[in-house]
């Protein structure tokens, strides 16, 4: 009987101590993320010339104009392959099924975003300077 009680006490002690990790992970998840602007380029495995121009020119514009902000995390550029399983959730969140470009503003833990896909397809390949200027302007506006 003493052995059974001792074993039960040890098991309870182990469960009580083992749960502290779950609480600390939850606290980490609840911490607000830094205010930032994200430039998200979504693409599939196969891409047309315009799709590749969207990524190339958007990335060039962001890197040239916002180098300091990229370093400190105020601006983030992400190229997301929606054909990969690990990107399924984010593709669903933005309702993306093909190449798309979004500018997302995170302020006080809340997100607002603008879909620039139509603008990107209209300008990235045929008017790259116009496209880059538009992306830069949208990011600048979002940083305010």
What does it look like?
Keywords: Signal. This is Thioredoxin. The protein is an alpha+beta fold. It folds into 2 domains: 1-31, no CATH class; 36-143, Glutaredoxin, CATH 3.40.30.10. 56% of the residues lie in helices and 20% in strands. The chain contains 7 helices and 4 strands. It has helices at 2-18, 20-30, 49-65, 67-72, 88-93, 117-123, 128-143, and strands spanning 36-43, 75-81, 100-107, 110-115. It has a 4-stranded mixed beta sheet with strand order 2-1-3-4. A hairpin with a 2-residue loop joins strand 3 and strand 4. Helix 3 packs across helix 7. The chain is globular, with a radius of gyration of 23 Å.
Gyration radius, to the nearest Å? 23 Å
Structural class designation? alpha+beta
How many structural domains can be distinguished in the coordinates?
A: 2
Broad shape: globular
Strand order of the largest sheet: 2-1-3-4
**Second CATH tier, the architecture of the largest domain:** 3-Layer(aba) Sandwich
Please estimate the helix content.
55-70%
> How does the major sheet shape up?
4 strands, mixed
Q: Strand fraction band?
A: 15-25%
Question: What do we call the CATH homologous superfamily of the largest domain?
Answer: Glutaredoxin
Spans of 5+ residues with little confidence (pLDDT < 50)? 11-31
CATH topology of the largest domain: Glutaredoxin
What is the residue-averaged pLDDT? 81
Distance between the termini: 69 Å
Protein name: Thioredoxin
Signal peptide: 1-22
InterPro entries: ArsF-like, Thioredoxin-like_sf
Organism: Bacteroides uniformis
């Amino acid at each position: 009987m003493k052995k059974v009680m001792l074993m039960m006490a040890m098991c309870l002690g182990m469960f009580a101590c083992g749960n502290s990790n779950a609480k600390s992970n939850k606290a980490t998840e609840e911490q607000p993320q830094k205010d930032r602007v994200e430039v998200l380029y979504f693409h599939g495995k196969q891409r047309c010339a315009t799709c590749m121009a969207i990524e190339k020119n958007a990335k060039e514009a962001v890197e040239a104009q916002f180098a300091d902000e990229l370093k400190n995390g105020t601006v983030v550029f992400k190229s997301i392959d929606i054909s990969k399983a690990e990107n399924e959730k984010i593709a669903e969140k933005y309702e993306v099924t093909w190449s798309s470009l979004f500018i997302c503003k995170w302020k006080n833990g809340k997100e607002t975003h603008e879909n620039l896909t139509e603008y990107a397809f209209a300008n990235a390949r045929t008017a790259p300077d116009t496209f880059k200027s538009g992306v830069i302007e949208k990011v600048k506006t979002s940083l305010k």
